[in-house]
Design brief:
Layout (H helix, E strand, L loop, with lengths): L17 H19 L2 E2 L5 E3 H8 L4 H6 L1 E4 L6 E4 L4 H10 L8 E10 L11 E10 L4 H18 L5 E6 L3 H16 L7 H6 L16 H5 L10 H16 L5 E2 L11 E8 L8 E7 L3 H4 L7 E7 H10 L11 E4 L6 H13 L4 E3 L10 H10 L4 E4 L2 H5 L2 E6 L11 E5 L3 H4 L6
Parallel strand pairs: 1-5, 7-8, 12-13, 12-14
Antiparallel strand pairs: 2-4, 3-4, 5-6, 6-11, 7-9, 9-10, 10-11, 14-15, 15-16
């Protein structure tokens, strides 16, 4: 017997009824994106490795430890399964000159890949919804992205999601802060853990995001980037905050919020929750005005965010906001195989009229008894059973039996419907 194969650890199958929750969430996201004027974009799952090394930063956790990078056996190209979506969108915008006629508002939904320890809401293949506003300078678009995410939480009925914001300023300001930060940390080198020592000169900003309790006092006493911001950076930050204030958006300024990619500048933000344990960030992003030039394009302002689909679904589940799994409107009971041809035609007409119908099909031992078929009809959750029995068909009809009462309290009944005109009674079957 062949060896049993399983999915790769941390890369999960998504089957019904769970997949219906994914479809439900994606439908609501797509509709909200439409209303905000964001258009769908689809990039390849595999990109040149250099795109992420140059775009995200050589000393980021993603590039150093988490990427699925490999060499193409056919031509020797160095390729990577995308660990995030922004770099690919920017690569495509440069390659196809997408912003030649003005700014573009784009969104994407799809899988990303990072080699890390699987845990609740965090997997090796995970899914993101990302929005990218390309070619827009002002903090008004930064504010729009916050409103977009906030409206999504409201439409999904989610609570306990808090917004944290910060400003990373511009490169020269970050450099001055970096030097002061290194000096502070070097002066207390005996308090640094091994990870912080490794990052001290390569990426000291990430030390501010440490979860090590023994380093919290040291980090709190570190120089604040906000104290190094110039007038333009402060003006951008203050205007952004003012726009959020006027829209009634509540937030907390978190001076330790630095994000994990090197390409961010000015506005950065995270939406966080206390209901998912260590994986508390459900949506995050910021401005990345330097990324276009960093990977070979013309300087172009841009801002965006990404949310984790698995984390949002976990939160919806925790807050009992997921809808019931969808059920068919009707289940077709076919006592004899000779009725299958007629049933197929009638059911097709009903489906074309918008009715969801599950058809009973023959097993190894035939169609099965009426009793067993009614059990399957009831188990399907359908409100109606359509009976293609010999007596019904002889009268040119289909039997329609109500399996469960309607929300209005309608009493279950059985009626006959004309076989030749299913479109006329289709509306009465839709739950």
């Amino acid at each position: 017997m062949a060896e049993k194969l399983s999915a790769v650890k941390g890369m999960n199958d998504i089957a019904p009824p769970e997949s219906a929750h994914w479809e439900w969430l994606e439908e609501r996201i797509r509709e909200l994106m439409r209303r905000y004027g964001y258009r769908n974009f689809r990039a390849p799952i595999v990109e040149p490795t250099a795109l992420f090394v140059r775009g995200l930063g050589e000393v980021t956790d993603i590039v150093e430890k988490e990427m699925y990078a490999f060499e193409d056996k056919l031509n020797g190209e160095h390729l990577t399964l995308r660990p995030e979506g922004t770099a690919g969108v920017v690569r495509a915008a440069i390659e196809h000159n997408l912003t030649y006629d003005g700014g573009k508002r784009l969104y994407y939904i799809g899988p990303m890949f990072r080699h890390e320890r699987p845990q609740r809401g965090r997997y090796r293949q995970f899914h993101q919804v990302g929005v990218e506003a390309l070619g827009f300078h002002g903090p008004d678009v930064d504010a729009e992205l916050i409103l977009l995410a906030s409206d999504l939480w409201a439409e999904l009925g989610l609570q306990d999601i808090a917004l944290e914001i910060n400003s990373l300023g511009q490169p020269a300001e970050r450099l001055a802060h970096r030097q002061a930060l290194i000096a502070h940390l070097e002066a207390h080198a005996d308090q640094l853990d091994e990870e912080a020592k490794r990052r001290l000169h390569s990426n000291p900003l990430r030390i501010l995001d440490t979860k090590n309790p023994a380093m919290q006092a040291l980090v709190e006493a570190a120089p604040k980037l906000m104290d190094f911001l110039g007038a333009e950076s402060l003006r951008h930050f203050d205007t952004w905050r003012s726009l959020l204030d006027k829209q009634g958006i509540t937030y907390r300024i978190n001076p330790r919020l630095v994000r994990g990619m090197d390409y961010y500048n000015l506005s950065v933000f995270e939406f966080v929750t206390t209901e998912l344990g260590a994986q508390g960030t459900v949506c995050a992003g910021g401005r990345y005005d330097g990324l276009f030039a960093q990977i070979g394009g013309k300087p172009t302002p841009a801002v965006g965010w990404a949310l984790g689909v698995e984390r949002i679904l976990e939160l919806l589940k925790a807050q009992h906001r997921l809808p019931e799994a969808p059920v068919p409107d009707a289940y077709a009971i076919i006592p004899e195989a000779t009725a299958t041809e007629t049933a197929l035609g009638v059911l097709r007409a009903l489906r074309q009229a918008g009715v969801s119908v599950t058809m009973h099909t023959a097993g190894a031992e035939g169609m099965g008894s009426m009793k067993s078929q009614f059990k399957k009809a009831d188990a399907s959750g359908a409100r109606y059973a359509l009976i293609f029995g010999a007596d019904e068909l002889a009268q040119g009809t289909v039997g329609v039996k109500t399996l469960r009462a309607a929300p209005s309290g309608e009493v279950p009944v059985q009626v006959l419907r004309p076989l030749a005109r299913p479109a006329e009674w289709a509306a009465s079957l839709r739950a």
